Amino acid sequence: MKRISGLLLAIVSLVVVLSACSGGTSITDDEQSGGEGEATEGSKDVTIWFHYTGKQQEEFLSLIDEYNESQDQYEVEGEYVPFADVKKQLSVGVAGGTLPDMALMDVVDNAAFAEQGVLEDITSKVEEWGEIDNFYEGPVESATYDGKYYGLPVGSNALGLFYNEDLLKEAGIEEPPTTWDELKEDAKALTNDDTKGFAVSAVKSEEGAFQFYPFLRSAGADYDSLDSEGAVEAMTLLTDMIEEGSMGSDVVNATQDDLARQFAAGKLAMMVNGPWNIERLKEESPDMNFSISQIPKDEQFASVLGGENLTIIKGGNVDGAFDFLTWFLEPDRHETFTYETGVFPARKDVLENSDHWTEDPYLNGFVPIMDGAVPRGPSPQWPEISESIQIAIQESLTGTKSPEEALDKAAESVSETVDE
Amino acid sequence: MKKGRWGEYLFIYPAVIFMLLLIGYPLIYNIILSFQDVDLNSLATGDKHFVWFDNYKALADQDGFGISVWNTIVYTLGSVVFQVVIGFLLALFFSMKFKLASFLRGVVMISWLIPLTITALLYKFMMGSGEGIFNQMLMGIGFIDDPIQWLSNPDIALWSVIIANIWVGIPFNMLLLSTGLSNLPEDVYESASLDGANWFQKLFKITIPLLRPVLLVVLMLGFIYTFKVFDLVFVMTGGGPINSTEVLSTIAYRLSFNEFQFSLGAAAANILFIILLFVSVIYLFMINKDEEA
Amino acid sequence: MQRRKEWMLNSLGILFVLIFLFPVYWMIITAFKSQSEIFQSTPTFWPKDFQFTSFIDIFKDNVGQYFLNSFMIAGLATILVLVLAVPSAYGLARFKVKGKNPMILLFLVTQMLPATVILTPLFIVFNNLSLLNTYWGPVLTCATLGVPFSVLILRTFFLGIPKELEEAASIDGCGRFRTFIRVIVPISYPSIVVCAAISFFFSWGDLIFSMTFNRNQDLWPLTAGIYNAIGRYGIEWNDLMAFATVSVLPVIVIFVILQKQLVKGLVSGSIK
Q: Would you indicate the residue range of the signal peptide (chain A) (predicted)?
């Protein structure tokens, strides 16, 4: 008994000692909010967090240098933060009061960060600038929240159907499938011991939701109507293809890059993927003939937008950041940057006045796709919505639940999330 | 004697103070956070209000929370039992004095030296259902006819991650138990041999009882390290398929850094913490009994 | 008879190690394969066409600096762990101090928070102490893994040392501290080396602390380099495995050197 009371005493004293330390909490908080509110007006430095890698990183950094040399008012500095770390770094940055002035973020996260009060509302600046009408609607929509601008799109992509021309020819298929029925049929015909006919990424991450979105939209459904007939049809299509064996059951763990690798190795005849994988496919399998077309449709062709927005952090050097942003988005510069790095411009005027994309044998497949590509959401609760969708996909594709059951449950949790 | 006391504290306290300073703050921060309602917005403004147990209630209602607690327990027990048993057998095996024993014991450690992120990717690579080497080999020797869906079958995925974790943990257990074995007094064995005890009798009557303190601490540490597993699960499956490999630490991470529900994330971490605290108290009781006896 | 047994044990040991380390073999061999060979339907156990491009690729990527950083972080953390943990473990094993149990509990408790939830509070602390973007962030945090671990393990081992040894030393007129340094540390050398090695590898594998506390890429360890190599748009298995191979090999070498020392202590059975 004595021992128990001793132990209890120990735990209590431990908590007391520890909470004595926690006196620091309030102090740090004060300091932090003080730091946040500090006026940075007239400041020269602009720090940007970006997650570009490889070629995109090189181009971006050299553009920053060019900008710094072109004027004396501001000094921009780019800091690399790996993609998977962006949200974490911004979170701890908020807590520690050490945020940059600008941050590059995935289109799908823009609304959430705006809602959380991290980003600067740049509506009046954007209106004064007067160029926003030259941009595509979808990407701009992804940068808005509550009717206000919280960033500008700097590069776009979408998903399309990649198909291996040689394998299609071998199977006697002349044109890539355009409807869901054709897709099912062709995928079956293309499947043999060595090769799967078709694949989407159904991994439990944003990628899974991203890949499902075109099917959802093609059937006339959306994230807020997951229990609709269209949504069920979309899910049934993918589930059936797994049951028929024309799509491998390990798609629930396959990322988009995994698909690209299988495709490059000839183990996959068709897949849903984005333009960023074109270079890799050319490099890894120089002899393979492949093309890109619209993702087969139910009611209408649909695709989903990906890409990045540059956002300005609240309380930072807003003027300097906006100055760099508009400089970076000037048509010529935007054209070179996006084309050189294999993505699509966010500006309509750039795409329309340039042959780069229409003449490229691969990228041109994406030109019509981009027209019909819509952003996910946008919703500040997207991460939670996305998770409900991911789980529904996995439940249905692994046969744990029927498409209806899985989607009903997802619809319910989405409506709870949105109502909150 | 008074002076001596001071000296004793100088031995002990620097480490205690170090840990209190570095971990005490996060610990308290986390406990407080779990009773508040904090997202990025309130984190920036400092406007945090207390909601007390609402977060814990919300967490209990979360889809997949119950299963994640269960998964964490299965994962931990599955990993620790196999790691300790295999590690112990290996320690015994290598404690026999044959020429290559020490070299081979060292080589086994390699699996533990590979950064966890790499191990996770490596196993994901080898457990691919089509071209993965595991299935290829198992099918090659005729052990199975159809490929095993290592990571895509919700009923199997958790055990696949456990297999990877056992592989990582064996050397750690083996090394600590080897060190423990080498510290055992040899004269006891000699007299036991004279009494005609066989290998099994010696193992269960002498080795295991004598090794008890070391076994206990190894079990305890293994339990703690496995219970808060993150990297391996996160990289291999991301918690999927569905929720079949979701564990408490992946939920805590996702809630905090993906959905910015920092308070819910903190609550999930605290539940993990409380379970571990409970197990630690049991450990303390056991070693106290041993040391007083 | 004896020879046959020796031969059997050796073969058995080798067989086991070969099976156990197959994944490591697979890692190394994949690094030398081309992407298309990796995804062939029938796996090749030896690369048909040995490629070094993956290694060339990663050596362009500043591996030297990454390696130095990993070494500094792991080395400093290990020293810190030993300085703090060895005396503490000894004290907790030998002295009848008040609050022994709570302190043991404290060491257990402090290991229980998953790394992901101590990031934000420690970030705030390090920011206030201006320790961000230095080696100290990851060094101190990694030491918080090694210190409790080593205290608990070493305490258990110190308990096994017969008290007579210290009594003899104190009769010879040694103070507590000198007894500790002259008698205890040498005698428990193998256990201390084991703890040092384990603390070293705890820190060697660190990724999340360095990435969170240091945005300055010049301070990133090898693991961060690997993580970076994965990039946003994917893993090239051969490059990744090459990076892994390069980052593991030096550790193995260090370990093999250490192992000899360690085994000497183990085999001679320092405590009888």
A: 1-22
Task: Please state the domain count of chain C.
Answer: 2
- Do C101 and C143 sit in the same domain of this protein? yes
Q: What are phi and psi of A300, to 5 degrees?
A: -145, 160
Residue ranges of domains in chain A, CATH in brackets: 45-157+306-374 (3.40.190.10), 160-294+381-419 (3.40.190.10)
One pLDDT digit (tens) per residue for chain B, 293 residues? 444 567 788 899 999 999 998 888 898 999 999 999 988 888 877 778 899 899 999 999 887 899 999 999 999 999 999 999 999 999 999 888 788 887 888 788 888 878 888 899 899 889 987 778 898 889 888 888 888 889 989 999 999 999 999 999 999 899 889 888 877 777 878 888 778 888 888 888 888 998 898 899 899 889 988 998 888 998 888 887 888 999 999 999 989 888 888 999 999 999 999 999 999 889 888 888 887 76
The CATH-assigned architecture of domain B63-292 is Orthogonal Bundle (1.10)
Rg (CA), chain C: 23
Q: Report DSSP state, residue A203.
A: -
- Which chain B residues touch A90 with a CB distance below 8 Å? 40
Name subunits touching B (3+ CB pairs < 8 A).
A, C
Domain that holds residue C43: 1-51
Chains that touch C (3 or more CB pairs under 8 A): A, B
A229 vs A224: CA distance, rounded Å: 13
Domain shared by C145 and C239, yes or no: yes
**Partner-chain contact C233 A264, CB within 8 Å:** no
String of DSSP letters for A146-169: TTEE--EEEEEEE-EEEEEHHHHH
C64 CA to centre of own chain? 19
Q: How many Å apart are CA B139 and CA B159, to the nearest integer?
A: 19
Question: C114: domain CATH number?
Answer: 1.10.3720.10
Assembly ipTM: 0.86
C94 lies in the same domain as C28:
no
Contact A378, A386 (CB under 8 A): no
CA C265 to chain CA centroid, nearest Å: 19
Of C180, C240, C269, the CB nearest to B186: C269
